[in-house]
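for the recovery benchmark. tokens below, seq after
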């Protein structure tokens, strides 16, 4: 008697695979993971919704969905995250860029004239999101991106190379220590600002992000204090300091800038009317 062949399994369709995943992790996460697993773009998913997906690709996708269901961030699973107009590489060595940080970029751009040269520093650059967004919008500016961690800085360098941004340079060091004796027209930073022991650190994507990029002391303000106290030595007269911070830190951030000699100090809220960025100008 001939051996029986194993029953054939019909390949799953793109739309069915997407529905299956969306039921587990939500459509917002299911789509980018499928785009990544298939090596296509989002428009392809809709144009080819009825196409079959090979078993290998379906298996890769289901493995990614399981990891997301277990809590791993989508950005780390795909290795990519969009920020401003840029598609950036991200790794477990970098903070995941977030849309609310684009407010910091907007405020910085409003203070740097596009037709004039300028010197800008981004402290704690991570993936390079802020520095590269500013460099792409202000090609006459020279932008210094700094970070203490060697592996993190390497990601930012690769992102600059991928976007052919030749007006960015990089320096390793802790906050303003990386600036040497240089002075800038604008210093921007999204430093760690979550208080040590905050329960949010044990929830969601934050569980997987580098602790050094999230938490700064008992009240979360250690990094901001260090930057504000030293920034006047690295700004030209009239130069600006812009800092992202937590929603309950606006008043303290304003007080720190005022005590350090900054004027025109204000806190700007994000789209959800939460204190997000405090800035000031050095007289």
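predicted aa per position
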């Amino acid at each position: 008697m001939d051996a029986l062949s194993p029953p054939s399994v019909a390949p799953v369709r793109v739309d069915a695979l997407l529905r299956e995943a969306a039921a587990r992790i939500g459509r917002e996460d299911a789509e980018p993971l499928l785009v990544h697993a298939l090596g296509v773009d989002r428009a392809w998913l809709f144009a080819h919704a009825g196409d079959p997906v090979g078993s290998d690709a379906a298996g890769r996708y289901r493995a990614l969905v399981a990891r997301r269901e277990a809590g791993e961030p989508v950005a780390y699973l795909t290795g990519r995250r969009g920020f401003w107009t840029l598609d950036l590489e991200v790794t477990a060595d970098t903070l995941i860029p977030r849309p609310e940080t684009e407010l910091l970029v907007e405020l910085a751009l409003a203070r740097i004239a596009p037709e004039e040269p300028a010197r800008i520093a981004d402290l704690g650059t991570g993936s390079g999101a802020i520095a590269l967004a500013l460099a792409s919008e202000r090609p006459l500016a020279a932008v210094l991106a700094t970070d203490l961690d060697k592996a993190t800085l390497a990601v930012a360098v690769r992102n600059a190379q991928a976007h052919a941004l030749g007006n960015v340079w990089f320096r390793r060091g802790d906050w303003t220590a990386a600036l040497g004796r240089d002075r800038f027209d604008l210093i921007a930073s999204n430093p760690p600002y979550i208080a040590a022991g905050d329960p949010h650190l044990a929830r969601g994507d934050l569980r997987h992000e580098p602790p050094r990029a999230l938490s700064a002391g008992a009240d979360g303000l250690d990094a901001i204090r260090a930057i504000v106290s030293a920034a006047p030595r690295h700004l030209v007269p009239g130069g600006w300091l812009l800092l992202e911070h937590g929603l309950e830190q606006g008043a303290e951030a304003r007080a720190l800038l005022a005590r350090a000699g900054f004027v025109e100090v204000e806190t700007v809220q994000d789209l959800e009317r939460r204190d997000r960025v405090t800035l000031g100008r050095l007289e």
